[in-house]
Write a structure and sequence with these properties.
This protein is an alpha+beta fold and about 110 residues long. It has six helices and three strands. The longest helix has 29 residues. The chain starts with a helix and ends in a 6-residue tail after the last helix.
Length: about 110
């Protein structure tokens, strides 16, 4: 159970699942829309999501090869949770950022233990 929660709870998995919410995307499109992810991390995360049956990878015989990613029915069952988590993060980001700033200001003069 912890391994599965670790995967679907990773920021990259959540962002990828969110991007695939409405449509099939190619690797390059995912790389452009998932801000900050490296090509290697995108590849690793896509492979794990495919392994777990949350998305499908379709290779089209063309030059260069075209690879599409789509959520499976199982992957689509995560959408409500992913969207809710995203909405929560958006709703509370200012409060969390303010808390971080207060914490950092209070702890910046203390030596690490």
């Amino acid at each position: 159970m912890l391994q599965i929660l670790g995967l679907i709870g990773s920021k990259w998995s959540i962002l990828i699942i969110g991007q695939l919410r409405d449509r099939t995307l190619r690797f390059g499109e995912l790389h452009r829309t998932v801000t900050g992810i490296s090509q290697r991390m995108l590849t690793l995360t896509l492979r794990q999501l495919e392994r777990d049956g949350l998305l499908t990878r379709t290779v089209h015989p063309s030059v260069p090869p075209r690879v599409d990613y789509t959520l499976t029915e199982l992957g689509a069952t995560l959408l409500d949770s992913v969207v809710a988590l995203g909405e929560w993060a958006t709703e509370h980001r200012r409060e969390i950022n303010a808390n971080r700033s207060r914490y950092d200001a209070a702890h910046q003069t203390q030596a690490p233990s």
